[in-house]
Each structure stands twice: as structure tokens, then as C-alpha cells.
Design goal:
Shape: elongated
Strand order of the largest sheet: 2-1-3-4
Helix content: 40-55%
CATH topology of the largest domain: Rossmann fold
InterPro entries: Homeodomain-like_sf, Resolv_N, Resolvase-like_N_sf, Resolvase_HTH_dom, SSR_resolvase
Radius of gyration: 24 Å
Family: Belongs to the site-specific recombinase resolvase family.
Structural class: alpha/beta
Distance between the termini: 72 Å
Organism: Arthrobacter cryoconiti
Number of helices: 7
Keywords: DNA recombination, DNA-binding
Largest sheet: 4 strands, parallel
Protein name: Recombinase family protein
Number of strands: 4
CATH superfamily of the largest domain: Resolvase, N-terminal catalytic domain
Amino acid sequence: MATQHFNLIGYTRVSTNGQDSQLQRDALEAAGCGRIFEDKISSRATARPGLVEALDHLRPTDTLCVWKLDRLGRSVKEVLTIADGLHDQGVGLRILTGTYRPTGEGKFFFVMMAAFAELERDMIRERTMAGLAAARAQGRTGGRPTVMNADTLAAAQARRARGESPTQIAKALGVSRASIYRHLPTSNT
């Protein structure tokens, strides 16, 4: 007789703080997850505290539920390691946009889907890097524009020469203290 899994525990991951996990949360809540753990961290990061907390929380007969396979791990190896570890502990794994069965054809399909997820992530990264390189070749750079142009820097240097603190200068010029420290020589601050 197959083990029944009673508690659905959700896990979401988005790559940056600017991204929203609400779509994943809605799907996990609709699936019946009683508790949802979350990470807002790049998949390249080695430490994912939300995943660690979710894995520590799970007990035999629980089921870890994720929206998509690529939310679980960075590579096929990592996803398989997590899935095998869950299976060994008597914990189920449910992927809302697919299925996972730890044996036979189910495991083969799972490995293939994990490989495709890793391939997709790598292709997106390669396209992003190629786009950035092309933009740099055309003289364009990404990122936030600098707030310390020549006029602002001159004003900051003049204020510092009058004895103002970096905090006072930053407030007066409407920039961060970090910008002041970064652009004024340390011997003058």
C-alpha cells in the first residue's frame, strides 16, 4: 500500500527582491499548502535559507510542493539529490506543473524535466550575457545612472573643504552617504 501524504508544505523562489512570488503562492495555496516557505535569492546562491527551513520542517508523510521544477534547484544533480533525500525520508514531492514518481518511468521523466529546466536556465543566462556584451560593444552600459556627475562632485568637494561631514553633504545634495564616501578621497572624509 502506498504511503499517504497528509501535510502539503509549499516552497517558492524568485531570483530577486524585485520579483514577486505571488503567482507561485496562489498556486500553492490553491493546491492546499498549509505552510509556505520562500526565498528571494538567485538560483546561483549557495545558501537558500527558505529551502533549508522547509526541508527541516518536513516530516514523514508530508509532501513538499513547488510550482515548477526549476524553483527547487539549480541543476539536475541538485534537484535529484533533494528529491532522493525526500523519498528516503518518506516525504513526497509534488510539482504543480508536472508530476514526480520516484521509480521507473516517473524517475526517468523527472530527470529529463530537470535537465530541460537546467538547459533553459543556462540558455537564458547565455542570451542575457550576449545581449549585455552587444550593448557594451555599442557603448551602452546597464545599471543605474550615476548620481555623482561633475557638478555634484565639485559641490561635494567644496562642502567637504568647508568642513561638512559626509552625512551633511549627502543630505544637502540629495545623494546617499555611500556615494559621498565612494567619490570623495578617503583622506578628505
